[in-house]
Structure formats: C-alpha cells, structure tokens
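FAQ: What does a ligand-bound record look like?

Like this one, built around NAP:
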Amino acid sequence: MPMLGLGTAFMEKDAVYDTVRRAIQIGYRHFDCAPVYKNQSEVGDALSDAIDDGEVTREDLWITSKLWNDSHKYDDVESALEGTLEELQLDYLDLYMVHWPVAQANGTEIPKSKQDYIGEDEAALIDTWTAMEDCLDAELTNHIGMCNCNINTLNMLRYESTLEPEVLQIEMHPYLPQQPLYDFCRQAGIHIVAYAPLGSPGRPVEMRHTNEPHLFSEPAFLEMSSKHGISVAQAILSYGITRKTAIIPSSTNETHLSENFESVDMKLDREDLRQLIILPKFRFFKGEEFTSNGSPYRLTDLWEY
Ligand SMILES: NC(=O)c1ccc[n+]([C@@H]2O[C@H](COP(=O)([O-])OP(=O)(O)OC[C@H]3O[C@@H](n4cnc5c(N)ncnc54)[C@H](OP(=O)(O)O)[C@@H]3O)[C@@H](O)[C@H]2O)c1
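The answer part, i.e. the structure of the complex:
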C-alpha cells in the first residue's frame, strides 16, 4: 500500500473529478473511497479517464473502499461491493473495509431511531467478516480490513475468523496517538491507515464540536515547520509517516495536494516527537451518531477507553 493516499470524504462533488486527475498527475496512486462519501462515480470517471489517457495503469493504483453499515447481512456484502465496483468502474478493489462495526437496516445512512439498527442479532460482525472473506475468494478485492474498531473486536475477528484483518483504518493524528491500539496492531501485523491525519479541519460545521483544538495552531508544529524548513501541514503529516502508518489526507487544493504528497519523505526526530507527548488528546470523529437514538452499540464497542 502506498504510505500516502488521497482521502475523498467531504469534497465538493464538482471538485472530485479534477482533484483525482490532478492528484494522479502529482503522483498519488492510493485513493480512499466509500459509498457514503457519495462521490465514487466521480472518482471512477477520473480513474477511468486517467487510465484511458495512459497516465497510469490499474495495477499502479491502490483503491480502497468500504462497506456501509446498511449492508452488513451476509447476503448483502458482495452485492454492496459489486455496486461500489460499478461506481468506481473497476473489476476489483485493492482493499475493502468494514466502515463501522455497526449493523443498520437497509437504506439507512445516519441512524435516527432504534428501527434503523439491526444489530448483532440480525447481522453479527463475524458473519459480515465471513462475507468479506468470501469477496476476497471471489477476487473482488485483494485485501480486507476493518475501520473504527478496538482491540476487543480485532481479537474476536482474529480468533473466530479464517483470515485476520490485514488493515485497520482509524482516526489517528498527534491529538489521538491511540498508543495501546497502535502497539497491538504493530505486534499483530495489522497495518494501520490513519484517517483525519490533519485533524479534519474541513469537516462540515454540523460535525464539529465546541472547543476543538486545532493542530495547525499548535506552537510545536510551527516550531518544527521552521526548524525543518517544511510547512505546518507537512510537519503534522510527518507524525503519521514517522510512526510507519499510512496516511490519507484529503484536499481539493492543488498546492496542498503537492505539499501533502511531498510529506511522505519527511520524518520527525526524537525531540519533535517528545514535544508532542504533552498535546491534549482529542477525537474529532466521536462515533456518537452510531451509539445513540436507540442504538444497541456503545462507545466502548468502538473505541479503547
Ligand atoms: N473510516 C472512516 O470512518 C473515516 C472517517 C473520516 C475520514 N476518513 C478518510 O480519511 C480522509 C481524511 O480525513 P478528513 O478529510 O476528515 O481530514 P484531513 O485529511 O485531516 O483534513 C482535510 C482538510 O485539511 C485541509 N488541508 C489538506 N491539506 C492541507 C494543507 N497542506 N494545508 C492546509 N490545509 C490542508 C483540507 O482543505 P483543502 O481542501 O482546502 O486543502 C481539508 O479541509 C477522508 O477524506 C476519508 O477518506 C475515513
């Protein structure tokens, strides 16, 4: 997996095609997608045109997508993946991931009431995972993984499944080092993909919290920027690279796309990392929308606390 990919959530729909084309020209080969981002068709058009124009081959690319929560029943998983492949205009994915360990009723996006959940009784995560394994056997994806889950869930899948999760995608940045989960994955050989590696400053207003800290204003990163002659964003992204996680920053801005791409070769030193230990801890994606409104799930089903 290329260590740096382009996240495609929260992009203005109109900007997606040009952004993906531009990213490929800059050198991006890894794209992080999901049906819930509602722009896979635009990503697919851009990938297909870039391939047709000879800029890349399918084999050069690493395309990730995710199973939405409303398709967790065993019989729904493969057809959801086929729908995603159709949108992305691909024959196979490089990585297919369970987006959240939360089973919802068909057609639901963000659950509003108890009826929107089907839970473990109707769609046990182990059955969803068995269907993911079957997608792998059917060569619809080369790898499978999980997002947004904790050590308990990973252990359950490791002990009860045939194939352990190869990749875990979680929120990870200097405000959320997730050290126990990070150490667990390193020991278990599970590759981490860090989402929101810049602290997701562009999330829609309704997803923001009061008193959010802002990585770009942290004096430690301003200092690292002048010490290493790199931008503040590059200093923040170097944190993930230094910890050997993949990172998938999102941007539709051409200068930012290039700047972020270059950060893959940058590393922080011990002194830099020491300075970061004292930063406040903050989770931007709290997952409360999946643990409220009659949900059978608890935050402790998602996170290490
Ligand atoms: N699995 C999950 O549940 C999950 C959850 C959240 C996110 N994700 C994935 O992770 C990806 C990244 O997360 P994210 O988009 O929330 O947050 P992020 O990548 O941490 O932050 C993106 C924001 O940072 C800005 N930015 C990017 N590069 C910059 C630079 N060099 N200088 C200044 N600002 C810069 C972007 O604005 P500009 O466009 O103006 O550059 C955008 O608003 C998503 O796109 C998605 O693919 C997965």
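Follow-up question: can I read anything off the structure? Yes, for example: The chain has a mean pLDDT of 97.
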